[in-house]
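Translate structure to sequence.
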C-alpha cells in the first residue's frame, strides 16, 4: 500500500508539474493571439487598442491599477507602463517591447497577416517576431510573477511602446515617455529586442546580445543650377556634378574602428567561419590585421557594417523636363555612424569627399547618439549560465546592430540597454518586415520560458 501511495504521489506530482507548465504556455499563446490580431500597423493601425488590451490582462491578474498606466499622446497611439513592485533593495529594471508593426498586404501573403495561424510548426502573422513575441513574453511573465507572489529585489518595469518602426519620429512612443514620464521609467538597465538565438539548418549556433547600435542620420546632397535649353549643354551640369560626388562617396571607406562589443563579436564569431575568414576575424579583433585581411573582411557587407561607419546613396532625383538642362539634382545619403563618432566630423568628411563647393550637404534627420552598453558581469553571467541550460555548448556573442531600435533613445537617456530575446530563428530565413513573417512554435515556447527565468534571475 505504501508503494502504491508513493507511486500515486509521483504521478500526481508529475501531473501537477505538467499542468503548471501547460498553464503559462496557454496564457502566452492566448496573449500572443490577441496581440497579433490587433492591427497595430504604425501608420494606420491602433496601438492604443493593444495598450488597453495588455493593461486589462495585467489588471485581471491582480497587479494594482495604480501600477498600470496607459498613455495615449495621440489618437490610436498607445503606450503601457506597468510595474511589479519589489523590495527596493536594487534599482528597477525595464523589460520593453514595441507593439507597432510594419504594414502587411493580404494579397502579398500566403495567409491573413492579422490572424495568428499555426501551420507546419510555425506561428504566422505580422509582428509574430517583430516585436509581439517579446511583448507577449513580458506580459505573460509579469502575470506569472504576480501569481507566484514573487518579490524581487528590484521593481520590474514593463514598457510597451508605439511607433518604434518609424524611429518614434513624432515623439509619441519611447521618446514621449522619456520626455514626459522620466521618473516613472527610471531604471538601472533594460532588456529589449535586438539579439536572438541564431540557427542554421536546424542547428543552434549562438545566443546574441545586442549592446550597441549604429547611429542613423540622413543627408540631402544636392546641386542647383540655372539650367537652360538641352540643345546648348554646358560643363556645369547639375546631374554630372552630383554623380561625380556620389561616385567619390561610393569609392570611399571610413576608417576601421572597433569597440568592446564588435571586438568580442569578431573574436567569438570566428569559430563559425571558414579558416581564412576566421583567421582574418581573429587578427582584426586582436588589432593585428593587415591591409589584405581588412580588405577581405570589408568585401562582406555584414562584416563591413560592423567595422566602420558607412554612408550610402539611397534615393535620387534630378531634372524637370527631357529637353531642359537640370536645375536641380538631389540624392539622399543614409549614414550609419559608429557609436561615439562625432557627427560634426562626419559632415566635414562628407564635404571633403564631395570635393565640390557646388554640392551642398544638409542634414535632414537629427541623430540620436548613444554609447554602447557595458558588458557587465551581473548581466552577462546569468545570460551565459541560462544559455548553457537551454542550448548547451553555444557561445553568447555580443553584437552591434547596424540598424536601430528604441534602445538608442534609452541609452541616450543614460539607461543601458541589452537587446536579448531568447527567440531562436534561422539566420538565413529572416522574415521580419517581410512576407509570411513567422516564429517557430517550439522557439516561441522556449523563448517565453527563457525570458521568464532570465528576468527572474536579474531581478533577484
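Result:
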Amino acid at each position: 500500500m505504501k508503494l502504491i501511495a508513493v507511486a500515486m504521489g509521483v504521478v500526481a506530482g508529475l501531473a501537477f508539474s505538467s499542468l503548471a507548465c501547460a498553464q503559462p504556455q496557454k496564457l502566452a499563446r492566448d496573449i500572443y493571439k490577441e496581440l497579433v490580431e490587433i492591427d497595430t500597423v504604425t501608420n494606420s493601425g491602433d496601438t492604443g487598442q493593444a495598450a488597453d488590451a495588455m493593461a486589462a490582462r495585467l489588471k485581471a491578474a491582480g497587479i494594482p491599477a495604480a501600477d498600470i498606466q496607459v498613455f495615449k499622446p495621440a489618437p490610436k497611439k498607445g503606450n503601457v507602463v506597468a510595474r511589479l513592485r519589489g523590495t527596493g533593495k536594487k534599482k528597477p529594471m525595464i523589460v520593453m517591447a514595441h507593439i507597432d508593426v510594419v504594414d502587411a498586404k493580404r494579397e502579398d501573403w500566403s495567409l491573413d497577416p492579422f490572424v495568428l495561424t499555426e501551420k507546419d510548426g510555425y506561428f504566422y502573422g505580422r509582428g509574430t517576431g517583430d516585436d509581439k513575441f517579446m511583448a507577449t513574453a513580458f506580459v505573460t511573465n509579469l502575470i506569472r510573477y504576480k501569481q507566484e507572489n514573487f518579490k524581487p529585489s528590484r521593481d520590474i518595469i514593463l514598457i510597451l511602446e508605439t511607433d518604434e518602426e518609424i524611429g518614434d519620429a513624432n515623439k509619441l512612443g519611447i521618446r514621449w515617455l522619456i520626455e514626459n514620464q522620466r521618473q516613472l521609467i527610471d531604471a538601472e538597465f533594460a532588456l529589449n529586442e535586438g539579439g536572438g538565438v541564431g540557427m542554421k539548418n536546424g542547428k543552434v549556433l549562438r545566443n546574441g546580445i545586442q549592446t550597441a547600435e549604429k547611429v542613423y542620420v540622413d543627408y540631402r546632397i544636392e546641386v542647383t543650377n540655372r539650367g537652360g535649353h538641352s540643345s546648348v549643354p554646358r560643363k556645369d551640369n547639375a546631374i554630372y556634378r552630383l554623380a561625380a560626388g556620389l561616385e567619390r562617396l561610393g569609392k570611399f571607406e571610413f576608417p576601421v574602428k572597433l569597440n568592446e562589443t564588435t571586438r568580442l563579436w569578431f573574436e567569438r564569431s570566428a569559430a563559425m567561419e571558414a579558416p581564412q575568414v576566421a583567421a582574418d576575424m581573429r587578427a582584426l579583433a586582436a588589432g593585428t590585421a593587415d591591409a589584405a585581411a581588412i580588405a577581405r573582411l570589408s568585401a562582406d557587407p555584414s562584416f563591413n557594417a560592423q567595422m566602420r561607419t558607412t554612408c550610402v546613396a539611397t534615393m535620387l532625383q534630378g531634372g524637370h523636363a527631357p529637353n531642359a538642362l537640370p536645375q536641380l539634382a538631389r540624392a539622399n545619403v543614409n549614414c550609419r555612424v559608429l557609436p561615439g563618432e562625432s557627427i560634426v566630423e562626419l559632415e566635414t568628411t562628407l564635404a571633403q569627399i564631395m570635393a565640390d563647393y557646388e554640392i551642398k550637404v544638409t542634414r535632414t534627420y537629427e541623430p540620436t547618439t548613444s554609447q554602447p552598453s557595458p558588458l557587465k558581469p551581473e548581466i552577462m553571467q546569468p545570460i551565459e549560465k541560462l544559455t548553457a541550460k537551454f542550448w548547451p555548448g553555444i557561445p553568447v556573442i555580443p553584437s552591434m546592430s547596424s540598424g536601430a531600435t528604441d534602445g538608442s533613445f534609452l541609452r541616450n537617456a543614460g539607461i543601458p540597454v541589452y537587446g536579448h530575446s531568447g527567440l531562436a530563428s534561422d539566420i538565413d530565413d529572416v522574415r521580419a518586415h517581410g512576407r509570411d513573417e513567422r516564429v517557430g512554435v517550439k522557439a516561441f515556447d522556449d523563448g517565453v520560458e527563457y525570458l521568464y527565468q532570465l528576468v527572474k534571475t536579474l531581478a533577484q
